[in-house]
Write a structure and sequence with these properties.
Strand content: 5-15%
Oligomer: single chain
Helix content: 40-55%
Distance between the termini: 110 Å
Number of strands: 22
Shape: globular
Number of helices: 39
Length: 837
Amino acid sequence: MIDFGKLLDDKDDQKPIFPKEVFELNVRDQKFSYLRGDQEKILEKWFEQRTLKDNVIKMNTGGGKTTVGLLQLQSSLNEGVGPALYLCLDNQLTAQVLNDAKGLGIKCVTFGPDNEIPTEFLNNEAILVSTFQKLFNAKSVFGILGDASRPVINVGCLVIDDAHAALSKAREVFSLKFSYSSDKYKGLLEVFKESLVSQSLGTAWDVIEGRDKYSILMVPYWSWIERIDGVTRLLSSFEDDDLDMKFKWPLIRDYLDQYFALVSASYIELVPKCLPIQKIPSYFKAKRRIFMSATLNDDSSLIKDFHISKESVLNPLQSDTFSDVGEKMILAPYNVDRDLKSYVMAEALSNIKGYNIVALVSSNYKAELWKKNNFVQPHPNNIIPTIERLKSALGNHIVLSNRYDGIDLPDDVCRILIIDGLPSATSLFEQYSMYARPASKIMRINQAQKIEQGLGRAVRSVNDYAVVLLLGPDLVSLVSTKEFQDLMSPQTVTQIKLGTQIVDLLKAGDGTPLKLIGSAMQQVLNRDENWIKLHKSRITKTTRQTINSELIEYAEIERNAFDLAISGQYLQAAEMVRNAVNRIKNLDNDDEGWYLQLAATYMYKADRGKSMELQLTAHKKNSYLLRPPEGTSYIKLTKKQTIQAIRIKDFIGKFSEPNAMVLHINTILESLSFSPESSAQFEKAFYDIGICLGFEAQRPEKEFGVGSDVLWNIYEDEFLVIEAKNEVKITRDEIYKSETEQISNSMNWFGAEYPDKFGMPVLIHPSHKLHREAFAPDNTVVLNEYNLRAMVNNIRGLFAKLAERKTSDWGPTEISAELRNYKLDRTNVKNYFISVS
């Protein structure tokens, strides 16, 4: 046997640091025979700037980012920048990375049953691959700031795979959530009951007493800060078997004054303004941090919560082309035929054999429809075996609830993907933010990002393909709006627009809509050459998405202000946010008010008087925000000369697909019914439908804590002052005294605010007869169940009529005529109401 070692010298023992050399000198499996062009370019760019603390790597799904990350870590190890750590979302992905590393000839280790940190990692001899949660928890084996029981492990270079999904997990680690049945919920509610009621009397009591399951209240920050000592003592007492508190509390306890507290009938949630990420020194002080991010994501949130540099987000390392984008045919069956609703498609898809089909839904409630059609819903803790089953066999039908990211369904694992309904907010803070900032571009971008993450679940590489069906009126109508498409990545918009053209071809085809859609799907699945060529042609012409510098600037400001505040520099933190609001242009009122309120939260500890001045200004900009303790002046609906028909034309012009407009209207109308526990949805829907009908509308009681449930300005000096009693049983045959007193109070309020205007008092109620002790204001009218149904049907008919042509083809005169035809113009709309007797 020849001893080849005799021919080795010191030069042969030198470890390469250039990533391509690392790759080429390793003994690899055949599947890693060469680096792809995009991988090689990104590695070259990274090597040139590897000494930067932060680098963002943006690669399309399936672009081989695991290989890139492992080579970057090995290069750093060879250079002496170790230990090296690769963080994955779960154990399944950890196993996948370990398998890829073996194929690449890169030595990796992971944690064993003893949970001890591997010596090879500490000695810079191997890359440690583990889950994100292993590092990010209060009992981390890597150590946390201020805990002397464990030494802090210094990390030289780390990779965070799928950074946005990891960020969601990090937010969970730094947040607390208490169920309504827990002692912590009851204790906190008792402490803040009075301050919640002072914000919104009716809504607060309905939430506190469990009647309103949907509204969310924010604890006023002045009450929160003033009672923070008591809150800390209340939360610090927990049992040893309370694992959630055990693995979170040490990370949170010193920063509670910089938390938001949200209250619903089901939960209380505590979330930080930004993540106090400094508590994880192994992450925070790492010399090199590499963040793997999909190309579709807005990365400003990484600045705010992961504390990465603005420069790394503005200059991500990414491919120069979209040549590695996988193939998706995105279709909305409803746009082919309005009868193709979710239940119809669920039944039809249940009969398809030979392909794995996965439906993504927003809730367990929505999953029930699919389960009735033989789709199987795995337990959230049993996802990995389910994916393995999809890998090993065809013909599986699976439904997953609220899993829009962090799950891969490549190749035959899923060839038909269904997204049924708009993704719902996963936290109280997210729900509250969407409610309080309805016009916010930042919130709409977050929503678009979640939808795109869902769209990408089934196509995980350049050679992968799938059919994606969009179902549900809320999802289809939103995705079809031009405004929303502007927030999505160019490649996804290209695929959506291509799907719209295919819908037009299907409408012109012979046969039933279901068969036509099935035929188009089969062409994709059978690899029709013209379809493949068409998709590639459209994708290669797509231009790269521009980075939104405003979002990045605000994220940096939020991060820097938070860091100032936790170091006790409250005045400087407040001024930083306020100056940014004054400096940055094109900020809508919703977000301007939101950031002024953020400034006020910081100002409160420095100057309470100035804090309340800021809060008053914030509330005037955005009436859904907190009202200062002294009260807030009501902001009147201003008279606008724009006629009803022109407003409707502007509204319908937002939709690129007429059927999507109909879906949007139908979604609103579904909430307009007499039913229990539905007041919040009803009032919101009645407000929304007023806007759709071209009226000025407002929710005074919700926005300002005074006035009627809903206010419509139907024409210049003419208003409808509306109190909704849709939760009253339809069998009730009388209007009670308490209900007439409420409409009387609203009319008194209206008279004080609009002394020179005419207001018609409207009760939405099943009866028009007064109880003998009830006395209503003059001219009081009722919208009962029968007339409400008639109004809803006419609204549905009006917009169905407008959907018969392209929205751009309608002129104001024609719309005015249709308003009269459907009895929805300012004169006829009052005929739906009947006088009380």
